[in-house]
Task: structure prediction
Amino acid sequence: MKSTQIEGRNPVLEALKSGRPIERLLIAEGQRHGSINKIIALARAQGVDIRMVSQTELENLATTCSHQGVLAVVAEKEYLDLEQLLDEAFARSAQPLILVLDRIEDPHNLGALIRSAEAVGAAGVVIPKRRAVGLTATVAKTAAGALEYVSVARVTNLVQALEAMKRRGFWIVGSDAAAKQYCYDVDLTGPIGLVIGSEGQGMKRLVAESCDFLVRLPMLGQVSSLNASVAGGVLLFEAVRQRLGSERTE
Result:
């Protein structure tokens, strides 16, 4: 199994708490305050190989700029295939919410979107194999531990994936700045696939045409669009707002 690394205190702590296999834990010498002690205690309890290294050595090994004195070498997170993700989604809820991302290339945006997806209890995230970032160390760091709890499917063809989701009962809702409807005007309480497009170009034309509904956010200022992760977060929480409101009226 391939290895990767997780950097930063909260991502490493959540990896330990989730039971993700950890090959070894590297901690910068002199780091014995705050959550580091909890990380060390959990690692020892799980029999993880703990190594104290110099600050310089850790910085040379790290791929992010914010390792916070700790780095874990872990088994690479496995992607699910789409059908596995859908089966898992319906096992959790009769009305699953899945985030679908089209050509998100910035790892910070992907990490932030995964963090928002976990926060709202989404059943998973779908990403394309081509022209999109995968689950890198920067993604894991930005997700702040959420990656340990979110299933991710990586697909070859996003349009075909959306059609497969429709066959399983999903309604596909895409975010488009030119859409006629606001996100508040569409029912987001059923099985929903919420599509967020790339940072600069939005959704590909065929992906947009595969959506059942296109929605936009109200933009009342001078800036015409939002960062992909911000827009995705707003739409995810609008879906949660509708679902909570539906539960209260039943």
Notes: The longest helix spans residues 228-249. The chain has nine helices and eleven strands. The mean pLDDT is 90. The first strand starts at residue 3 and ends at 7.
